[in-house]
Amino acid sequence: MKKLKILFLCTGNSCRSQIAEGWARHLKGDVIKAYSAGIEKHGLNPLAVKIMAEAGVDISGQQSKTLEDLPESVFDWVITLCGHANETCPFFPGQKIHVGFDDPPKLAVDAENEEEALAHYRRVRDEIKVFIMTLPQSLQAIIRFSALQSIFLFVFFTRRYSVRHLSRSSGLVVSCNRYNVYD
Predict the structure, then answer these.
(1) Who contacts 132 (Cβ-Cβ below 8 Å, separation ≥6)?
(2) Which DSSP helix (H) or strand (E) runs through 9?
(3) How large is the average pLDDT for residues 102-122?
(4) pTM
(5) Taking the mean position of all CA atoms in its chain, how far away is CA 176?
(6) What is the distance between the alpha carbons of residues 30 and 24, in angstroms, rounded to a whole number?
(7) Residues 47, 100: Cα–Cα separation, whole Å
């Protein structure tokens, strides 16, 4: 089975995207070929390395990269993890979605000690893990949701009351009759 090529994109490729790449390789390496990059290169965050090691995932060998540093340029999915990357993401063939997570270094700025700072990193690490665990099934749900959105918009804007749509890729059949949707 061909692995999905997924790029996790963040501003500096120092924390969130590195954590996502680490989790994807660790939890979903059999179905996902994971990459990470940043709009800029900020270096690998040592606290991200530390909290991932606590969870049994070694990301110390990963490096901060920009898009130009990647060995691949075509991905099945590009997942932006911060607003800046989402807003400045260049065009990629394939699917692009935004799943935003808090920025641990920004949250930890006011921490009184390292343990307090690490609590922010751990929370975001665990949130990213939960998201990664849903892959790749959640990506298929996004495709189906997009198809349903398109149907609803078509019905709404054309004011037609009867639409039948068959999605060839998913086999999803949707019937609309006066805005009641059945599958």
Answers:
(1) 20, 23, 24, 27, 28
(2) strand 4-10
(3) 96
(4) 0.78
(5) 31
(6) 9
(7) 20
